[in-house]
Write a sequence for this structure.
């Protein structure tokens, strides 16, 4: 994805893409690093998770290519911001104690190059990745309204086994996958976070802060929104999917991956 696309989805990003406490908790458990250690946040966005970790006593290097995203970051003395891309990290060899990549690998132009770079700057790990694979998990009604976005998701998110193989090979690391069902009240409103709250998708700012909507053709988006709005008003959506409103979580294919030597 180009820097220009990051700039488009980055506008007002902090309004909808706040750090979620459950993502943060799982990340910390997998990193298993004491406070004070230095962590690289690759594809840091506006730094929501960097700031959350800094608040717990960690030191961060936040690497982000988009100037628009970096400008929205809340400044913190424990975070060093660096413009750069995952495929060519502006860091010296073996300089960090851990690495996080949170919902960012689908933006990388070459995950093999990115994996080699991560192994270079943090050869022993731990590396914690949060990604998703639409080929696994439960079927999501969202794609019935937005088939173009479904095709996009399948095209940009690599199969989980491929991600595991690429990063394991680059660092000669062991790998562990942890299922992360999306909570019913996810604060980090990614494109799948409205699984039980379909009204979220009617918010244009929410849509703007997701790369899938940002890259979709306006015609496809408007057609999907019209159908969804109609089905919500008529009650059809709730007839078909209303049971989701009472659920605590939904497995949309999101997985944490832990890599370490």
């Amino acid at each position: 994805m180009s820097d220009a696309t990051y700039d488009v989805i980055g506008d007002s990003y902090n309004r909808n893409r706040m750090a979620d406490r459950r993502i943060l908790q799982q990340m910390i458990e997998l990193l298993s690093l004491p406070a004070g250690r230095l962590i690289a946040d690759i594809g840091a966005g506006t730094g929501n998770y960097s700031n959350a970790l800094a608040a717990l006593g960690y030191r961060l290097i936040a690497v982000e290519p988009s100037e628009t995203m970096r400008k929205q970051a809340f400044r913190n003395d424990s975070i060093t911001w660096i413009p750069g891309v995952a495929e060519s990290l502006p860091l010296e060899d073996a300089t960090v104690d851990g690495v996080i990549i949170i919902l960012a690998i689908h933006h990388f132009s070459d995950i093999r190059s990115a994996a080699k770079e991560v192994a270079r700057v943090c050869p022993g790990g731990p590396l914690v990745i949060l990604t998703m694979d639409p080929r696994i998990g439960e079927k999501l009604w969202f794609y019935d309204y937005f088939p173009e976005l479904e095709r996009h998701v399948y095209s940009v998110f690599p199969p989980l086994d491929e991600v595991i193989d690429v990063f394991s090979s680059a660092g000669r690391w062991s790998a562990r996958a942890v299922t992360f069902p999306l909570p019913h009240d996810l604060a980090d409103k990614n494109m799948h976070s409205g699984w039980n709250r379909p009204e979220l998708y009617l918010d244009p700012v929410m849509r703007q802060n997701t790369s899938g909507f940002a890259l979709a053709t306006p015609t496809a988006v408007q057609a999907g929104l019209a159908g969804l709005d109609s089905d919500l008003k008529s009650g059809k959506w709730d007839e078909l999917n209303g049971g989701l409103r009472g659920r605590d979580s939904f497995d949309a294919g999101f997985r944490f991956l832990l890599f370490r030597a």
About this structure: The chain is about 40% helix and 15% strand. The longest strand covers residues 254-260. Confidence is low (pLDDT under 50) at residues 1-5.
